[in-house]
Amino acid sequence: MTRTATSIDQDAADSLTWLHIGAGSFHRAHQAVYLNALRESGADRRWQLALANIRADMSPLLEALARQQGQYTLETVTPQGQRSYQRIASIGRILPWDAQLTQLIAAGAEERTRIISFTVTEGGYYLDHQHQLDTSNADLADDLRCALDGSGAPRTIYGAIAAILHARSQAHPQAALTLLNCDNLRHNGERFRDGLRQFLTLRGETALVSWMQANTTSPNAMVDRITPRPTAAVAQRVKEATGIDDPCALMGESFIQWVIEDDFKAGRPRLEEAGVEMVQSVLPYEEAKIRILNASHSCIAWAGTLAGLQYIHEGTLRDDIRQMAYDYVTQDVIPCLTPSPIDLAAYRDTTLARFSNPAIQDTNQRVAADGYSKIPGFIRPTLQESLAAGRDPRATAMLPALFLVFLQRWNAGQLPYEYQDGIFDPAAVRTMLGAADPVQAFCADAVLWGELASDARLVKLVREAVQRVQQWLDAGN
To answer: Which of the 8 DSSP states describes residue 328?
Structure first.
């Protein structure tokens, strides 16, 4: 039976719509929280969230949210273990999934929809090391052939947005729109926009490219809040604390940050009144977050997995693993990012304190995922810039070395969980790991290393770092 969109608020018909694609935990613990704060404060009640997903995997959650009128409970936890509970009621419409994304496309085409944001993870943009679309990806290849008239079945963010823009340009030719990337992708607005332009160009959609250029903007943004996958324990604590039986409950750390370039094409909520930092350039915030927080997170996840640990906080609280992340930031990242408007040493210390929060229960499995996006996005720039400056980034080299040893464990079937990666080719990786010189083959991978691929300096750094990782493991891990 086809479900219809669930509309929550009585004033929904009069509101402006902020459509979000990606019904995972992060959106509900981040963007939805800021919009909720605006509505609760009375500072700006014009905007209402509509929530949808590209894939079917979130359909049970969307259906559960619809049964709860879009509301759910968020548990937040401080590094000291203090828990608090908040009811989030900013989602005004739940758009059920179907293969043609019928209601998602219809909502995106509505004139009152002024902002479309999305969280599809780093790998969901299918960009290679030169920021070009990886057209060998099966889903992307299918979407390049997918009809935009509503009869197709888009499976990527490009296919979905292309169908929305097609419908919108037909129904409301002058209706401007902001496309807002909320993923951990460097220059995320620019990268998405370039990818979308490539996608439309490959399809021969010349008129739609022109319409997009004239009627949309894609500001860069930086988002931050650790949000583990929800567990039954979260729902149980919510019930004990609030009396609410909430299958949609989720948890996040108390820290939250959102920095956005103020380049909205069709108006926006008064986000600064909810604590969003509206800036001219997000670059220094983005670089600090990606290199210090995201890369350190991956370091701790890969090292923790190799050491037999399950959770991020367990690795962070171990002196040896914490030191790896500390040295990486202190010895290599801070010199690369100085000068900065941010106190980078303080940001490093705050980050490690956040990671050490035992209440978050963030798993190594979640954070270790998508290494083939994280090496080029989070880690390679520090190696490149350090080498260009004549420095020897030995501390940074530990991160890809950890990942290589992690992949060797994966290849041997020795990981304690299933490794998930949106863009790596398992057969090619197994071939690389089976080479006579796996380090040389690893460092020759253009997907990971771009212009650094096969660079003798990179090979030397990683080879020495792999030896240090093996010595560390042999010493008792």
So the answer is: I
Q: How many whole angstroms separate alpha carbon 213 and alpha carbon 165?
A: 11
DSSP secondary structure code for residue 363 in this structure: B
Helix axes 102-109, 157-171, angle to 10 degrees: 50
Structure tokens at 195: 């990818």
Residue with tokens 């930086």: 222
pLDDT confidence band for 106 (50 / 70 / 90): very high
And the tokens for 259? 């920095």
pLDDT per residue as tens digits for the range 175-199: 999 999 999 888 999 999 999 999 9
Dist. CA 324–CA 2, nearest whole Å: 52
3-class SS of residue 3: coil
CA distance 413 to 417: 9
Number of Cβ within a 10 Å radius of residue 255: 16
d(CA 354, CA 224): 11
Task: Check if the beta carbon of residue 232 is closer than 8 Å to that of residue 249.
Answer: no
Cβ partners under 8 Å of residue 295, min gap 6 = 328, 333, 374, 378, 379, 382, 399
Peptide bond just before 339 cis, omega within 30 deg: yes
CA distance 84 to 390: 48
- pLDDT by residue (tens digit) across 13-66? 568 999 999 999 999 999 999 999 999 999 888 999 999 999 999 999 999 999
> 121's torsion region: left (phi>0), alpha (psi -120 to 50) or beta?
left
pTM here is 0.83
Q: Given a cut of 50, is residue 419 above it in pLDDT? A: yes
In which residue are the tokens 């400056």 written?
389
Side-chain half-sphere of 112: how many Cα atoms within 13 Å? 12
- 377-415 burial, b if ≥16 CB within 10 A, otherwise e? bbbbbbbbbbbeeebebbbbbbbbbbbbbbbbebbeeeb
* CA-closest candidate to residue 224, choices 124, 350, 39: 350
Cβ(5)–Cβ(107) below 8 Å: yes
Q: Do the beta carbons of residue 325 and residue 296 sit within 8 Å?
A: yes
Alpha carbon distance 464, 458 (integer Å): 10
Residue 31's DSSP bridge partners are none
Please say whether the dihedral angle defined by the alpha carbons of residues 304, 308, 312 and 315, taken in this order, is positive or negative. Answer: negative
Q: Which helix (H) or strand (E) holds 111?
A: none
Q: 341: cis peptide before it, omega within 30°?
A: no
Which value, in Å, is the radius of gyration of the alpha carbons in the chain? Answer: 22
What is the residue-wise DSSP string for 428-440?
A: HHHHHHTSSSHHH
Nearest to 102 by CA among 64, 153, 58: 153
Whether 161 has a pLDDT exceeding 70, the answer reads yes
Using left for φ > 0, alpha for ψ between -120 and 50, and beta otherwise, residue 110 falls in beta
